[in-house]
Specification:
The protein is an alpha+beta fold. 43% of the residues lie in helices and 22% in strands. The strands form 5 sheets. Strands 10, 11, 12, 13, 14 and 15 form a 6-stranded antiparallel sheet that branches. The chain folds into 3 domains: 2-126 and 371-445, no CATH class; 135-217, Roll (Pdz3 Domain); 220-296, Roll (Pdz3 Domain), CATH 2.30.42.10.
Length: 446
C-alpha cells in the first residue's frame, strides 16, 4: 500500500510539473501565432496511450514517464525533423519569428515552473502555516548514528549551536545550511567547541550507508508489533512508551542497544507509559536481543511528553505572499548551492546525485497534501533550474543561442544548431545514466 501511495504522488506531481512546463512554451507560441504540432505528457516512443488532434495540434499521453514535450514547427528540437527544416521557412514557424519572441517562447516553461513554486509556497503558508522544533528546547542534544559524523568527532548528546556563522534557531535550520558548511559549533556537556568539516564532507555522506545526520532523540514509542515478535500475543498497543527495562531508565530510543546488551533469550521486566497510565509488563527478548517492536510516533506526542517544543505560526492571506516569497528564494538559493557543490569535484557531492528513484523516495509513504505540495514546489524549482543550464537540447541551450543572436546580430546556422542538439542529447543521456546509475549502485551497496 505504501508503494501505491508513493507512486501515485510521484506520477501526479510529475504530470502536473510537465504539463504546466510545456504550457509555458505552448501559450506564448500560440500568442505569437507559431504552430504547435504536438503537446505530449510523457514520451510516445513508437506509440501513445492516448492522442487526439484538435485544430493543428495533436494532444497525447505517451507511455514512457521520463518527461514531456511540445513540438513547435520550424524548431530544431528533440524531434530532429530535418525534412521540415529543409523546406522554405513559413511565417507560422518558430525559425521565422523575431529573436525576442523565440526567447519568450523558450523561457516560458521555466517561468511557469518558478511561478508555480511561488504560488504553492503562498498557499501552503496560508493553509498550513509553519511548524518547527525550537533548537533550545532540545534538552539532551541529537542522536548521532552516522559513522561519517562520528569519525569527525560528533557524539550523541551534542547540541548544534551554529553552522559556519549562522546561528541555529530551529531544527530545520541544520539541513538548510549544511550544504557548503565549513564548520559546526556544538555544545557538549556545557562547553562550546567547533568541529571543522572536510571539503569532501558531502561526498562522504553520499557514499555512506546511513543517510541521517543529526537525528532527534525520541522515546521508544511503539508504532507496530512485528508478526514474528515473541510478544505478539501480549497487550501491547500502538503509542505505548517503554521507559525502563530491568530497572534501567530508557529515556531515549538511542539508549536501547546499551540497555539490552546481554539480554538475549531472556525475560525482562519493563515499565510502559500508556497515555497517562504507567504499566509493568514482562517481555521476551529473542536470540538477536530484540523485542520485536517497530518504533515510531508523532512529533505532537513527543512534544506532549516534553522531549522538545514545537513552534507554530499561522499567516493571514496577505502575509502568505511575503512568507511564500521568502520560502521560494530560500529554496532557490539552497538548490543553487547544491548544484554548485555538485559541479565542484572536490566536494564529492556528485556521488549523491540521484535519478527517478531518488525523486520517488522523497515522497511520503502516507498521503499528506502538505508534504505533497511542498515536495512539488521544490521539484518545480529543480526542474526550472536544470532546464536553464546552458546545454543544447535544454531550454537553457536554446536561450543561450538566441541571446548570442540578439547580441551579435548573427543567427547560428541550422547545421550548427542540429549538431549542437546532438551533442546536447549525448550530454543529457550521460547525465541521466549517471544519475540513475547512482540510484542502482546505492540500492545494491545498501
Amino acid at each position: 500500500m505504501e508503494f501505491v501511495i508513493k507512486i501515485s504522488q510521484f506520477l501526479l506531481s510529475l504530470s502536473l510539473l510537465i504539463v504546466l512546463h510545456e504550457l509555458g512554451h505552448f501559450i506564448p507560441a500560440k500568442l505569437f501565432k507559431t504552430r504547435v504540432e504536438k503537446f505530449y505528457l510523457f514520451f510516445d516512443v513508437k506509440y501513445s496511450l492516448f492522442k487526439k488532434k484538435i485544430g493543428e495540434t495533436v494532444y497525447g499521453i505517451g507511455w514512457l514517464p521520463l518527461g514531456g514535450y511540445v513540438k513547435i514547427a520550424g524548431m530544431i528540437d528533440e524531434s530532429m525533423d530535418k525534412e521540415q527544416m529543409a523546406q522554405e521557412p513559413q511565417p507560422w514557424e518558430f525559425r521565422s519569428k523575431p529573436a525576442w519572441q523565440r526567447l519568450i517562447i523558450m523561457l516560458g516553461g521555466v517561468t511557469v515552473n518558478f511561478i508555480l513554486a511561488y504560488v504553492i509556497y503562498v498557499f501552503i503558508s496560508f493553509a498550513y502555516g509553519d511548524s518547527d522544533i525550537a533548537s533550545n528546547s532540545i534538552k539532551d542534544g541529537y542522536w548521532i548514528e552516522n559513522p561519517v559524523l562520528k569519525d569527525l568527532g560528533f557524539k550523541t548528546g551534542d547540541k548544534i549551536l551554529a553552522i559556519n556563522d549562522y546561528k541555529i534557531v530551529n531544527d530545520s535550520d541544520i539541513g538548510g545550511n549544511i550544504i557548503g558548511a565549513e564548520n559546526i559549533t556544538i555544545n557538549r556537556d556545557g562547553k562550546e567547541q567547533v568541529i571543522d568539516l572536510p571539503e569532501d564532507f558531502l561526498g562522504q555522506l553520499s557514499s555512506g550507508k546511513i543517510r541521517g545526520l543529526f537525528n532527534l532523540r525520541i522515546p521508544f514509542m511503539i508504532a507496530e508489533v512485528s508478526d514474528s515478535s515473541l510478544n505478539k500475543s501480549l497487550d501491547i498497543k500502538e503509542g505505548d512508551v517503554i521507559t525502563s527495562i530491568n530497572g534501567k531508565e530508557l529515556k531515549y530510543f538511542d539508549q536501547l542497544d546499551e540497555v539490552m546488551s546481554g539480554l538475549e533469550n531472556q525475560k525482562v521486566n519493563t515499565t510502559i507509559l500508556r497515555g497517562n497510565e504507567t504499566l509493568t509488563k514482562e517481555l521476551s527478548v529473542d536470540k538477536n536481543g530484540k523485542l520485536g517492536f517497530r518504533p515510531g510516533g508523532s512529533t505532537k506526542r513527543f512534544e506532549e511528553l516534553g522531549y522538545f517544543k514545537i513552534t507554530r505560526k499561522e499567516y493571514g492571506f496577505g502575509e502568505s505572499f511575503v512568507v511564500g516569497w521568502q520560502k521560494f528564494t530560500k529554496t532557490l538559493s539552497s538548490y543553487g548551492g547544491q548544484l554548485k557543490a555538485i559541479f565542484n569535484p572536490k566536494t564529492g557531492a556528485y556521488k549523491g546525485v540521484g535519478g527517478f528513484k531518488a525523486i520517488f523516495d522523497v515522497f511520503q509513504p502516507v498521503w499528506s497534501w502538505e508534504a505533497f505540495w511542498g515536495i512539488t514546489a521544490f521539484l518545480s524549482i529543480m526542474l526550472a533550474v536544470l532546464n536553464l543550464l546552458p546545454i543544447p537540447a535544454l531550454d537553457g541551450g536554446h536561450v543561450m543561442f538566441t541571446l548570442y543572436e540578439m547580441v551579435s546580430g548573427r543567427k547560428p546556422s541550422e547545421k550548427f544548431l542540429e549538431r549542437a542538439q546532438m551533442v546536447g542529447f549525448v550530454i543529457l543521456i550521460a547525465l541521466v545514466l549517471f544519475a540513475n546509475g547512482n540510484d542502482i549502485f546505492k540500492a545494491f551497496s545498501n
